[in-house]
Amino acid sequence: MSAVMMPGQPVADAVFADLVPRIEALRSQGRPPGLATVLDGDDEPSARYVAMKMRKAEELGCNSPHVHLPADATTADVIEAVQRLNADDGVDAMLVQHPAPPQVDFDAVLMAVDPDKDVDGMHPTNVGRLALGIPGPVSCTPAGIEAILAHYAVPVAGRDVVIVGRGVTIGRPLSILLSQKRPTANAAVTVVHTGVPDWPEYTRRADILVAAAGVPGMIRPEHVRPGGVVVGAGVRYEGRTLLPDVDEACEEVAGWITPRVGGVGPTTLAMLFRNLVEAAERRAGPA
Ligand SMILES: NC(=O)c1ccc[n+]([C@@H]2O[C@H](COP(=O)([O-])OP(=O)(O)OC[C@H]3O[C@@H](n4cnc5c(N)ncnc54)[C@H](OP(=O)(O)O)[C@@H]3O)[C@@H](O)[C@H]2O)c1
Question: Which positions are catalytic?
Answer without folding.
Answer: 53, 97, 120
